[in-house]
Design goal:
The protein has 129 residues and is an all-beta fold. Helix content is 0%, strand content 51%. The protein is elongated.
Length: 129
């Protein structure tokens, strides 16, 4: 089992295959079912080895994908604000929304293999069939 320290919006997340990640923000252009390719990683490894990037590990060495599972919301927050010596009470409501991801693919690619546009692996000996 491999692990990766992926960076999403400059925040590091330690992930393995099958992990569920709740981002501290909502991705407005990613509806549920969207597959995201993670392309920034500072550390990649397993029990036997560790790749450390300076600042990132080369994308040709690994492949990580996550699917948007859904959007969660926290309970409604209600804050009452008042000014001194005034009867007026202002209520402020806020409800934060968060995007939830699940890591569906995490691979270390073989030497000399690259990913094709369709997600297929193309090696040195292949002609891109």
């Amino acid at each position: 089992p491999h692990y990766i320290t992926a960076h999403i919006h400059a925040r590091p997340y330690l992930l393995t295959l099958g992990d569920t990640l709740r981002l501290p923000f909502r991705m407005p252009n990613a509806p549920p079912g969207t597959v995201l390719r993670l392309n920034r990683a500072s550390i990649l490894g397993s029990r036997e080895f560790t790749f450390r990037g300076d600042p990132w590990v080369d994308e040709k060495l690994w492949l990580a994908r996550a699917v948007v599972v859904g959007v969660e919301g926290e309970p409604m927050r209600v804050v009452t604000k008042t000014k001194r010596r005034q009867r007026k009470v202002k209520t402020i409501k806020s409800k934060m929304r968060f995007t939830v991801l699940r890591v569906t693919e995490l691979k270390i690619l073989p030497e000399g293999a690259e990913e094709d546009v369709d997600g297929l692996l193309v090696g040195e000996g292949d002609a891109g069939v």
